[in-house]
Design brief:
Order of helices and strands: EHEHEHEHEHEHHHE
Strand content: 5-15%
CATH topology: Rossmann fold
Strand order of the largest sheet: 3-2-1-4-5-6-7
Number of strands: 7
Shape: globular
Distance between the termini: 23 Å
Largest sheet: 7 strands, parallel
């Protein structure tokens, strides 16, 4: 099955008046989310390490009539995350929702052949990055008294041994643990915390891996019921819904957006 053409739909105002922070926003799922959150009425605060690309995206959104602020930084650095959250408060008055999407992965290698530096960076971005974001986002949501919504990006590798590298599988499992624990801890304050269990999605990283190892194309597609990869915007649509009032009774969920891979008994 070919991948669908995902186009901009009719503005429904799901996030009108909200302020959203999106990490990993310079490409892939994060960039698609930045555009979609803005289309749905949110002011978006964008974080990623690639400053020029981030600024270009913010300018694109602003030119289209949206509200966007680019604040470059590394989610693995607590001070960088604090700077982004402070910018959200200074520019837009607070923070209502967050899509903690930044991630890091490498081509898999056997555990005993994996460098410690790869393990450390994988954990720093995927786990510490989510920790840093929530640690600085939650106080702002608590202070507002309006509650809020946090969506963290996990992966099918957070549920199963998918063949991805051991550090990546471990990291994405940890994201689900953080999500569930935080949902329990902050639910009484009106803050919902959920995770997306994302299947293989077209991105620069995936395209680069396929270019280097062409056999990976079929390996990525084969487990999918729909026999294709996701488009980044398809993942972004799920994040928008979880951040909206339409998901008001949804929290602590690991929501599959994986083309049906989790429905298959052979990996379930």
């Amino acid at each position: 099955m070919s991948e669908p053409e995902i186009t901009r739909g009719t503005h429904t105002g799901l996030l009108d008046g909200r302020v959203a922070m999106i990490t990993g926003a310079s490409s892939g799922i994060g960039a698609a989310a930045a555009r979609l959150f803005a289309e749905e009425g949110a002011a978006v605060v964008l974080m990623a390490r690639r400053a020029e690309r981030l600024r270009s995206l913010a300018e694109e959104i602003t030119a289209a009539g949206g509200r966007a602020l680019a604040v470059p930084g590394d989610v693995a650095e607590s001070a960088d995350v604090r700077r982004v959250v402070d910018a959200a408060k200074a520019e837009f008055g607070g923070l209502d929702c967050a899509f903690n999407n930044a991630g890091y992965a490498t081509i898999e290698s056997a555990l005993h052949e994996t460098d410690d530096a790869v393990f450390d960076r994988t954990m720093d971005v995927n786990v510490r990055g989510v920790w840093n974001c929530m640690k600085h986002q939650l106080p702002l949501m608590l202070a507002s008294g309006r509650g809020g919504s946090v969506v963290n990006t996990s992966s099918t590798a957070g549920r199963y041994a998918t063949g991805a590298s051991v550090p990546y599988v471990a990291a994405k499992h940890a994201v689900l643990g953080i999500t569930r624990a935080a949902a329990s801890e902050y639910g009484a304050h009106g803050i919902r915390v959920n995770a997306l269990v994302v299947g293989t999605t077209r991105s620069e990283m995936i395209d680069g891996a396929v270019q280097q190892y062409p056999q990976l194309e079929q390996a990525f597609i084969a487990p999918q019921i729909q026999k294709r990869m996701a488009a980044p915007r398809e993942i972004a649509e799920a994040a928008v819904w979880l951040c909206s009032d339409r998901a008001s009774f949804v929290t602590g969920v690991a929501m599959p957006v994986d083309g049906g891979i989790s429905a298959q008994a052979k990996i379930g």
